[in-house]
Each structure stands twice: as C-alpha cells, then as structure tokens.
Design brief:
By secondary structure, the protein is an alpha+beta fold. It has 5 domains: about 1-90, DNA Primase, Chain A (Alpha-Beta Complex); about 100-220, DNA primase, catalytic core, N-terminal domain (DNA primase DNAg catalytic core, N-terminal domain); about 235-345, Dna Topoisomerase Vi A Subunit, Chain: A, domain 2, CATH 3.40.1360.10; about 355-415, no CATH class; about 435-550, no CATH class. It contains 25 helices and 15 strands. A 5-stranded antiparallel β-sheet has the order 1-2-3-4-5. It has a 4-stranded antiparallel β-sheet with strand order 6-9-10-11, covered by helices on one side. β12, α11 (about 255-260) and β13 (about 265-270) form a beta-alpha-beta unit. About 30% of the residues are buried. The chain binds zinc ion (ZN). The site of zinc ion has 8 residues, from loops. Zinc ion (ZN) binds near residues 34, 39, 57 and 60.
Length: about 550
C-alpha cells in the first residue's frame, strides 16, 4: 500500500477538493456544499479537515482521504483514481501497468497525438488560418482551445504509425472513415478538440471550411465520449465558474469560444443535447446558479424550457438570458454591446413564461388564464421558499394583490398537493454506538479499559470492537475503507466536541456504554424469548442470568 500512502502524502486534500467545490474556511476546517453525486443540499454539510487530510459529508455520510474521494466523486475504479492522483502530483507510475489501463491511455494519447498533428497542419495552412482570423479569433484562443486543421488523411495516418499506434486502435478512435484507405472523416475541416474534465481529449468537432453555413461533423459517442455528460469548455471555465459563482450555458461551441475570448470565461456549451442530469451533476460542484443563453429559434426555446424543467427542485437557481431576436452571443459580443447588461436583465422562469405566453396582461380574461397557467407551474416546485418567491413574482408581474395570488393558489391546489416541506432525500446513515466506541478506543488507550470493564455483553459486540478489546486489532491493520470510516467518526466526534470539556467526554463514554449494553441486552433477550417459546431449557437459565446482570447494571 506504499503507493497510495505516498500519493496521499504528496496531495493536499484541500487543494484536491477545491477542484470540485467551493470551500469556505470554518475554524480549523473547510466547509462546502456536498460535491458527491446523488446528494444535493441547501446548507453546506461537507467538511474538509486539512489536519486529518480527510473529507467528510454530514449529510450523506460519504467520506474519504484523497484516493477514496476521487473514486467516489469521479465514480472511478481504484486504478483510474490512482492515475488521477498521480497526474496531479506529477508522479511517474511506470510500474503501474495494467492491460485495461494501457488501452485507455493509448486512446487518449492517440487523440492527443492526432490533435498535435492537426495543430501543426493548421500552422501550415494559411487558408484555414485566415478563416479563423476572419472570425476575429485571437491567436491565444486558437492555442487555448487547441484548434487544428485536417489537411491529409494519409499524412495523419503516417504520423500516428510513426508513434507506433496499432490499426485497431486507430479504428477505435473513429477519426477515419476507412483506415486502410486512410480517409480522415474530418478532411478539410477546422478541428475543435473536445476534452473531458480531466483534460483528456475524447472527441472532435469539425467545421467545414469555405462555407458560412454551420456545417459540423462530430465524433460518435463512445465509452470515452458521452455527449450527455460533457460540457464544452468546462475544463477551461471551471475556475471562473467557482470564482464568479455562476455559469453561463450556451448552445454551441463557437459561442463558448466567443464568450471566453470576451472574458466571460465562466461559459460552457451543451452541444447537440439538452441540459442533462449528468451536466447538472458536474456543475453543482462548482455553482448553483445557472444562466441559460440559448438560440431564439424553436429548438433553442424548447431547450430552454427543458432546462428550466430539468433544474427544478434540484437547488439550482436558473435565469434565462434573452438576446435580441436572431442574434447569438457571438454576434452580440461583436456588436460591442455590453453582454453584462443581458446578464443583469436575465429572466426568472416565471418571467420567461410570461414573456413567451400568448396572453395579453391587459385583458382580464387573459390575465385569469395566464394566472392559472403560472400557478400550475409553481405547483411543481416543492421548496416553500422558491414557491413563495415565484408567487410574489406572479403578483408583481401580473399586477395583482399578493394575497389574491396566494388564495387562488391554495384554493386550486391545496387539496391536490401534499403541502409542507419535503425533506431532502439523503441516505441518513447513523453510526452505531459500537462504532463510536471503536474510535474512542483508538483515540485513547485508556478508554479501552473503560469499555472492557463496562460493556457487559461482550460476546454480542461487533467484530471490530470485540477484536479491539482483545487487542487483536490495530488501526494500521484495518482495510482502507474501514480506516476511513473510523477516521470519519473521529472527525464527527471532534467537531461535535470542539467546545466540549473533559466532563462531557466522560458522560459521552457512559452514554455509549449504556446504549451499547441496552441494545445488546434487547438483542439477546429477544433471541432467548424466541427459544423459550420452544421450551428450550438452556434459554430459560440464560434468560434469568441476563436479567440479573441487567438489574445489577441498572439496565432497563
Ligand atoms: Zn453529502
């Protein structure tokens, strides 16, 4: 296990976690909204302890040191997570060779090498360069996004062969229509490499030259490239999204490039998909505020509505930027208009619906119908604060009295919906008293003697605790996840008792002992009673013994 330890020792957990979520200093620790998949929350319950080099969520009870954290958050296998840590620390892992990993690494390096070829080809092709400069793209942008150009399938093929890539891997990359004929499917196109969150190139988008029509070709979906997961520009935008605490989502890659070039670096694109749950999963680690800026056409508006629908009740605040008709972000930026103005006047979902409705607010009949439609939308928001916010907004926008809107809302929907606060759906795992006892023993050897003396039903204790009381178990011998688990409990105890004193700790020890005894007493007597029903003589004797013991120790 020396490799894991070496890697973890050279990584600062605070630095690692801050790649995924915005951390705020809270005493000796840092706090944040939980970045783990599957847990969305309003108040931060995720804690990172620099002293213990441990991350822990009090909401969903996920925890881990650096390696486990990466495995959980990236949903990765041990080997891949090791690789991520290694790339962060720049440690070479030459001996870490695994057939599966080899293939993976090689497909990534193949895309990387192909990108290098395309970049060089762009440098050698004035026509392709002119195309980019005509679109006002700066040289830094071309370098930053690693644009390239496909000039010759044969030359690209030979370049890859020089790098010792096998034909079947070249085929797997889907760059060539036909590998034996060396036909590059992106021929005579500008190449936009698509990266995943780890900076690996996983696919290409290619735009045809000599045409102002948006004619694009894409790499097909693969196990490396999942369109419903990847947001174009996210790697470049990550830091800016966290810093500004909002993200602008546009529809096309060219819009991302234009926006980031104009210093709206916190911009990403969904390309050829709606805003999916997987996208949101990646975003919520960075921010909870979204500005949608999709096209004015039917498809764009449909995508906007879908995005509103999809972010509902997921603790996202969504705003809709509306640009003048038939303009895209690229054109707005080029017209020297201040894009910040559009951000400032972005619409809430309710305002967006009102703006796009066919009803005239000046007509009483229309106003009634519109109100009904809007109340129907608000009904689907489960958070009472959000609901209150939107009902107030409806009153304001439709120029109605607030209590009138509330009355209509209650009258129509009260019976139909379950009122009240919907609890966050989280996996509420509680630690058992026995688990907590383990950590107290590991914290201080003296506690072992205390538990040894006071835990009266030792036979029924969980194995780790039993072993520990007999000194057969040592923390070093624990498996990785167990070790993390007990460390997490320690962190919880430490945080809970930050202001506590010795007396409280003694009381805590007594409480743990009493609860453990009580739980085990109930467990044993229940089992014995069952046996007594079958007239098991031994069970009767044992039952009496236990009752006596319980009385002695004042157990109820
Ligand atoms: Zn959590």
């Amino acid at each position: 296990m020396w490799l894991v330890e070496e890697l973890e020792n050279s990584i600062d957990i605070v630095e690692l976690v801050s790649r995924y979520t915005k951390l705020k200093k809270a005493g000796a620790n840092y706090k944040a909204h939980c970045p783990f998949p599957g847990h969305t929350e309003k108040t931060p319950s995720f804690v990172v302890s620099p002293a213990k080099q441990l991350a822990y969520c009090f909401g969903c009870h996920k925890w881990g040191w650096a390696l486990k954290f990466v495995m959980d958050i990236e949903n990765m296998e041990f080997k891949d997570a090791i690789q991520v840590l290694a790339s962060i620390t720049w440690k070479k892992l030459e001996w870490f060779d695994n057939e599966n990993y080899k293939i993976k690494k090689n497909i990534y390096s193949l895309y990387k090498d192909a990108t290098n070829y395309y970049k060089k080809a762009l440098g050698n092709n004035p026509e392709a360069q002119k195309y980019l400069y005509d679109r006002w793209l700066k040289k830094e942008t071309i370098i930053k996004f690693e644009f390239g150009f496909s000039d010759s399938g044969i030359a690209l093929y030979n370049y890859l062969k020089e790098k010792w890539y096998e034909d079947n891997l070249i085929k797997e990359s889907s760059i060539f229509v036909n590998v034996p004929q060396r036909k590059d499917k992106f021929i005579w196109r500008i190449i936009f490499p698509i990266k995943n969150l780890r900076w690996d190139i996983v696919a290409f988008t290619a735009r045809i030259l000599n045409s102002w029509e948006p004619k694009y070709l894409n790499s097909p979906s693969s196990k490396y490239y999942d369109k419903s997961e990847i947001l174009y520009g996210l790697y470049e935008a990550k830091k800016a999204i966290v810093d500004k605490d909002f993200v602008i989502i546009v529809e096309w890659q060219m819009d991302v490039i234009a926006m980031q070039e104009a210093w709206f670096i916190n911009t990403v694109a969904v390309s050829w998909t709606a805003l999916t749950d997987k996208h949101l999963q990646n975003l919520k680690r960075l921010t909870h505020k979204i500005y949608i800026c999709f096209d004015w056409d039917k498809a764009g508006q449909k995508a906007t509505k879908l995005a509103i629908e999809n972010t509902k009740n997921k603790w996202f605040e969504i705003n809709i930027i509306t640009l003048p008709k038939w303009k895209d972000p690229d054109e707005i930026l080029k017209s020297w208009k201040d894009f910040n103005e559009y951000i400032k006047s972005a619409l809430s979902p309710i305002a967006y619906y009102i703006n796009n409705s066919k009803f005239e607010i000046t007509s009483i009949e229309d106003k009634k119908k519109l109100l009904l439609e809007l109340l129907e939308i608000v009904k689907n928001y489960t958070d009472p604060i959000e609901r209150d916010f939107y009902l107030k907004e409806i009153a304001e926008k439709l120029d109605l009295k607030e209590n009138l809107v509330w009355d209509s809302f209650n009258k129509i929907f009260r019976k139909k919906i379950k009122f009240g606060y919907e609890e966050e759906k989280i996996n509420k795992k509680e630690f058992s008293f026995e688990e907590i006892a383990i950590w107290y023993i590991l914290l201080d050897e003296k506690n072992k003697e205390f538990f040894k003396k006071n835990l009266i039903f030792q036979k029924t204790l969980i194995k780790d605790l039993k072993d520990l009381l007999n000194w057969e178990l040592n923390i070093i011998n624990l498996p990785l996840d167990k070790r993390d688990e007990y460390k997490a409990i320690a962190l919880q105890i430490q945080i809970e008792q930050e202001t506590d004193n010795e007396t409280n700790k003694q009381e805590d020890l007594l409480r743990i002992t009493k609860q453990t005894n009580l739980e085990n007493y109930r467990k044993i007597t229940k089992e014995l009673k069952q046996k007594m029903k079958d007239w098991d003589d031994e069970a009767f004797i044992k039952y009496n013994e236990i009752i006596k013991k319980a009385k002695e120790y004042n157990l109820k």
